[in-house]
C-alpha cells in the first residue's frame, strides 16, 4: 500500500484533504493536517497487524502467547520460531508498534538488496552458469503441459517458449483465439509451507496486448500429481508491458479446494480475483469472463462490452435445472434466523459440525475410497464473502429435502448435527445470500442451491431450482459460500475466531479426525491447540516433600448422565486460560478462550488464586445443549455435580484446590520478567497524581508544623534499582511542591519498605518510596502475582506520605512504625502450615 497511498493521498490524488480525513476517521483514526501525516495514519489503519493487534501493548505481552506469536508471524510473513526468538531478544517494554515498524524496515532493506537485480530488469540468467538453460526449460514445459491438460479444448498453434503460447480455445461450440502466458506454480520462497507462488520469467519478456487474441495468464499446479492438476488464472491486463519480475502468492488451500471441488475463487489482498479450476472446467472460467464483459467471441468487440457485463444464460453454462427444492412452509423461518444471538465463532462452528458429522457418518466408505482422513476443512474469510469447504461425504440426493428444511433433525441425532437448524440458521445470520455446492460420495453429480433470502421473501417463492452438472466419480465435497454479508468479521474478531475454533475442536484435531485451515487477508493458517503447562511442584505445606504434577481426573456417574474429565493447576496463572472447558461428543460447548466455565463452588471469587490457576476439561454425556450449542443444560444436576468433583480433586491425598490457593512460586528479583511491576508503578503514580488525591494530600500537608521536628538521616541507597522500575511525580506541598519517587529495588539485605527524605541539588524536597522485590516477603507473596503490586504500592505510598506529614506536624520518631513493620514482616515472610 505504500506507493499507492503516496500517490492517492496527495495534492494530485482524487480526494481533498478533508475527504481523506473523513476516510481516516471512519476507519477509527484521527484527522491530520497534511497529506504526509494522513498517509501514515491511513497506512496504520489499513495495516492488517494493527487491525488484529493492539500496537500499544508490549512485546512481553505478545511473546507469552504462543497463538499470538503464530498469528503475528503469519501477518508479518515470517517464520514463527524466528519471530519468537526475536521477540525474546527484544526488551519486554518495547511497544509492539515500534517493534513491527523496525522489523519491516529491516526486512524491506534486506529484500531490496536481495532482489535489486531483478527489479531493475537485469537478466538474472546471466548471473550464474546454467541458469539460462534452466529458465528456458521451465518456460517451455508449461506450454507442453497446457496442451495435454486442456486437450481437446485447447489447440496449440505456436508453442514458442511457453511465454507466450498461441492457440485456439473451444468452449461450448465457441472458439476463441488466445495467447497464453503460462508458468508453473511453486513454493512461496518465503518459508511459508501453506503458501504457493507464481512468478514470470527472469528474462524480462512482457505480456503484450494482441489486438486479435485474448490474453491468458495461467499458473499450472501439479504438486500433488497429474490427477489433481489445477490451473490458476490471473489478470493479465494488470501486468501488460511489465518487464520486471513479479510474484503472485496464493494460499495452498485455494489450490486444494479447486483440486477437490473442481473450481474455486480467491480475492487477493490487492483486490484481484483469482480463478483456480481443474483443466476440464476451463469453460467455467471463460463463462466468468463472458459474464463480466471482459471477453466476447471476437476480441475486437470486447471494448464495446467492457462497461455492460452480459448475463450468462443457462444454455451458456451448460447447467440443467433438473429438479427443484421445496422450501414451503418453512420459508418464513429463514428470515427469522438473522435475529439469533450468535457469536461469529459459534456460527462458523455450525458449518464445521455438519462437515465433521458427514465425515464420521461416511468414514468407512471414504476410507474404502482412499480418503481415510483427516478431514480437511477450509474456512476462507474475505471482506465480502465467507466460504467453508470440506472433503467429507457431501449431501446425498436422498438427504436434500431434510438438509435444507429448517428444524428437521437427521434420522441419527446422536452426532454433532442434531437439531436440523445449524447450517440454515448460521448462514442466514451471517448473510442475506448463501449458496451450497456439493457432490456426494458415489454420485457423479454436482448440485448447487442458491438461497437469496430477501428475494425469496419478496416473491414468496416456495421452490428453489437445483442446478446440476456432471462431476468426477471420485468427487465428495460441500462448499457453503456466504455473500451479501450481514456480519463481516474484521480486525481482532478474526484472531478471536481462530482462537475459539482451535479451542472448540481441540479434541477432534488432536485425535487426527479433522484439520482446520483458516484464510484471512490472503494468508492461510492451520489451527492447532497448545496444551497449557501444568504445575510440577511439592505441596506448599510440605515444601521438602517430592515434587508432583498437579493434575487429577474425576468421574461422576448419575446413571443416565455422566461427567468425566480432569483438573489441573497452571504453571503460570492466567485469568484468560484458567477454568473448565466443557465438551459434549468431543466438541467444546462451553468454556472457550476467555470464556471458561468457572463455577464459584470450585473456583471461589473471581480474584482468587484458584480462578487464575485451576484449569480442566469436562466431558458430559446425557446432558442437552442450547440450540446454538454454546451452553450445557444441567437440568438441576449442577450443584451436586460440582460437589462431587470438589471431593475428588481436593481429597486429603491430593488437595489440588488447596494447592491452587496456597502455593506461591518462589521468585527472586533476578527471575522476574524485565517489565515486572512497571504497570503497577504507573498505576500507583497515576492514582497519587490524580487531582482529587493531590488536593487531599495538599490539605493534610497544610497542617502547621510544630517547633520540634524530628530530623531523619537519609536511608542508604539500595544495591540496585531495577531497570524501568522507577516513577517520578511532583505533588503540591505547603505552597511549593515535593517530588515523590516510587522504586522497585533489588537488595537482599534491605528492608521490605523504605521511605527516604532528601534534598535535591535545587533544594527541592524528594521523598523516595522503595519496595524491595528481593525481600523474603516479596518472594513469598508478591513475585508470583504482579496484580498484588498495585494495591501494595498505593498503601506504601500513602504510609510514606503520612509519615512525612506526621514528622512535619512535630511528631517525633515517626519512622519507628515503619521500622517495626519491617521487622514484623520478616517474621511473617515464613508461611506456617
From TrEMBL:
<feature type="region of interest" description="Disordered">
    <location>
        <begin position="107"/>
        <end position="143"/>
    </location>
</feature>
<dbReference type="Pfam" id="PF20296">
    <property type="entry name" value="MTaX1"/>
</dbReference>
<dbReference type="InterPro" id="IPR046894">
    <property type="entry name" value="MTaX1"/>
</dbReference>
<protein>
    <recommendedName>
        <fullName>Methylase-associated X1 domain-containing protein</fullName>
    </recommendedName>
</protein>
<feature type="compositionally biased region" description="Basic and acidic residues">
    <location>
        <begin position="124"/>
        <end position="140"/>
    </location>
</feature>
<dbReference type="Pfam" id="PF13589">
    <property type="entry name" value="HATPase_c_3"/>
</dbReference>
<feature type="compositionally biased region" description="Acidic residues">
    <location>
        <begin position="112"/>
        <end position="121"/>
    </location>
</feature>
<feature type="domain" description="Methylase-associated X1">
    <location>
        <begin position="177"/>
        <end position="286"/>
    </location>
</feature>
Amino acid at each position: 500500500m505504500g506507493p499507492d497511498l503516496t500517490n492517492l493521498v496527495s495534492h494530485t490524488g482524487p480526494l481533498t484533504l478533508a475527504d481523506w480525513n473523513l476516510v481516516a476517521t471512519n476507519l477509527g483514526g484521527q484527522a491530520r493536517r497534511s497529506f504526509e501525516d494522513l498517509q501514515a495514519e491511513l497506512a496504520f489503519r489499513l495495516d492488517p497487524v494493527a487491525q488484529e493487534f493492539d500496537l500499544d501493548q508490549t512485546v512481553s505481552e505478545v511473546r507469552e502467547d504462543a497463538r499470538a506469536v503464530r498469528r503475528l508471524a503469519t501477518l508479518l510473513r515470517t517464520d514463527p520460531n524466528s519471530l519468537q526468538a526475536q521477540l525474546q531478544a527484544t526488551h519486554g517494554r518495547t511497544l509492539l508498534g515500534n517493534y513491527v515498524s523496525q522489523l519491516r524496515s529491516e526486512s524491506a532493506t534486506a529484500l531490496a538488496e536481495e532482489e535489486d537485480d531483478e527489479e531493475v530488469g537485469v537478466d538474472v540468467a546471466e548471473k550464474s552458469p546454467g541458469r539460462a538453460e534452466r529458465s528456458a526449460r521451465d518456460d517451455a514445459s508449461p506450454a507442453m503441459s497446457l496442451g495435454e491438460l486442456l486437450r481437446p479444448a485447447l489447440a496449440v498453434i505456436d508453442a514458442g517458449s511457453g511465454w507466450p503460447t498461441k492457440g485456439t480455445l473451444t468452449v461450448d461450440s465457441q472458439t476463441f483465439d488466445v495467447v497464453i502466458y503460462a508458468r508453473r506454480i511453486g513454493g512461496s520462497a518465503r518459508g511459508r509451507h501453506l503458501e504457493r507462488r507464481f512468478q514470470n520469467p527472469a528474462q524480462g519478456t512482457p505480456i503484450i496486448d494482441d489486438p486479435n487474441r485474448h490474453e491468458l495468464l495461467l499458473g499450472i499446479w501439479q504438486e500433488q500429481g497429474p490427477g489433481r492438476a489445477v490451473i490458476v488464472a490471473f489478470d493479465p491486463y494488470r501486468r501488460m508491458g511489465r518487464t520486471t519480475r513479479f510474484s503472485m502468492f496464493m494460499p495452498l488451500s485455494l489450490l486444494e479446494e479447486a483440486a477437490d471441488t473442481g473450481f474455486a475463487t480467491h480475492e487477493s489482498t490487492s483486490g484481484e480475483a483469482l480463478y483456480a479450476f481443474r483443466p476440464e472446467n476451463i469453460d467455467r472460467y471463460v463463462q466468468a469472463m463472458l459474464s463480466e464483459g471482459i471477453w466476447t467471441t471476437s476480441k475486437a468487440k470486447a471494448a464495446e462490452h467492457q462497461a455492460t457485463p452480459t448475463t450468462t444464460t443457462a444454455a451458456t453454462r451448460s447447467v440443467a435445472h433438473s429438479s427443484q427444492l421445496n422450501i414451503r412452509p418453512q420459508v418464513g423461518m429463514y428470515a427469522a434466523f438473522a435475529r439469533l444471538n450468535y457469536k461469529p465463532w459459534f456460527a462458523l462452528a455450525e458449518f464445521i459440525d455438519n462437515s465433521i458429522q458427514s465425515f464420521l457418518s461416511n468414514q468407512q466408505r471414504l476410507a474404502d475410497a482412499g480418503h481415510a482422513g483427516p478431514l480437511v476443512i477450509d474456512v476462507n474469510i474475505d471482506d465480502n464473502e465467507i466460504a467453508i469447504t470440506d472433503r467429507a461425504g457431501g449431501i446425498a440426493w436422498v438427504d436434500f429435502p431434510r438438509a435444507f428444511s429448517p428444524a428437521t433433525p437427521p434420522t441419527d441425532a446422536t452426532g454433532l448435527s442434531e437439531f436440523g437448524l445449524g447450517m440454515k440458521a448460521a448462514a442466514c445470520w451471517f448473510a442475506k445470500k448463501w449458496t451450497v455446492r456439493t457432490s456426494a460420495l458415489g454420485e457423479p453429480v454436482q448440485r448447487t442451491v442458491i438461497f437469496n433470502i430477501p428475494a425469496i421473501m419478496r416473491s414468496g417463492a416456495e421452490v428453489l431450482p437445483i442446478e446440476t452438472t456432471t462431476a468426477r466419480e471420485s468427487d465428495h465435497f460441500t462448499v457453503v459460500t456466504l455473500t451479501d454479508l450481514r456480519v463481516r468479521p474484521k480486525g481482532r474478531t478474526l484472531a478471536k475466531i481462530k482462537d475459539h475454533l482451535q479451542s472448540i475442536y481441540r479434541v477432534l484435531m488432536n485425535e487426527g479426525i479433522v484439520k482446520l485451515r483458516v484464510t484471512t487477508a490472503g494468508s492461510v493458517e492451520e489451527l492447532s491447540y497448545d496444551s497449557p503447562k501444568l504445575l510440577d511442584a511439592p505441596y506448599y505445606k510440605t515444601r521438602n516433600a517430592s515434587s508432583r504434577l498437579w493434575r487429577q481426573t474425576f468421574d461422576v456417574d448419575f446413571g443416565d448422565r455422566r461427567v468425566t474429565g480432569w483438573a489441573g493447576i497452571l504453571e503460570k496463572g492466567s485469568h484468560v486460560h484458567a477454568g473448565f472447558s466443557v465438551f459434549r461428543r468431543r466438541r467444546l460447548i462451553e468454556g472457550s478462550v476467555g470464556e471458561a466455565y468457572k463455577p464459584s463452588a470450585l473456583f471461589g471469587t473471581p480474584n482468587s488464586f484458584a480462578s487464575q490457576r485451576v484449569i480442566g476439561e469436562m466431558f458430559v454425556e446425557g446432558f442437552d445443549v442450547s440450540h446454538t450449542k454454546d451452553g450445557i443444560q444441567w437440568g438441576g444436576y449442577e450443584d451436586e455435580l460440582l460437589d462431587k468433583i470438589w471431593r475428588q480433586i481436593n481429597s486429603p491425598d491430593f488437595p489440588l484446590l488447596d494447592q491452587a490457593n496456597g502455593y506461591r512460586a518462589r521468585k527472586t528479583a533476578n527471575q522476574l520478567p524485565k517489565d515486572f511491576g512497571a504497570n503497577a508503578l504507573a498505576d500507583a503514580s497515576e492514582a497519587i497524581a490524580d487531582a482529587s488525591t493531590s488536593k487531599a494530600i495538599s490539605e493534610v500537608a497544610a497542617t502547621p508544623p510544630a517547633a520540634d521536628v524530628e530530623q531523619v538521616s537519609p536511608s542508604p541507597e539500595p544495591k540496585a534499582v531495577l531497570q524501568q522500575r522507577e516513577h517520578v511525580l511532583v505533588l503540591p506541598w505547603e505552597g511549593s511542591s515535593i517530588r515523590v519517587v516510587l522504586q522497585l529495588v533489588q537488595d537482599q539485605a534491605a528492608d521490605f519498605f523504605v521511605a527516604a527524605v532528601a534534598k535535591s541539588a535545587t533544594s527541592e524536597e524528594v521523598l523516595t518510596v522503595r519496595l524491595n522485590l528481593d525481600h523474603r516477603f516479596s518472594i513469598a507473596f508478591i513475585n508470583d502475582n504482579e496484580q498484588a503490586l498495585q494495591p501494595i504500592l498505593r498503601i506504601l505510598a500513602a504510609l510514606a506520605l503520612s509519615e512525612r506529614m506526621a514528622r512535619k506536624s512535630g511528631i517525633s520518631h515517626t519512622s519507628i512504625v515503619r521500622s517495626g513493620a519491617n521487622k514484623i514482616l520478616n517474621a511473617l515472610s515464613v508461611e506456617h502450615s
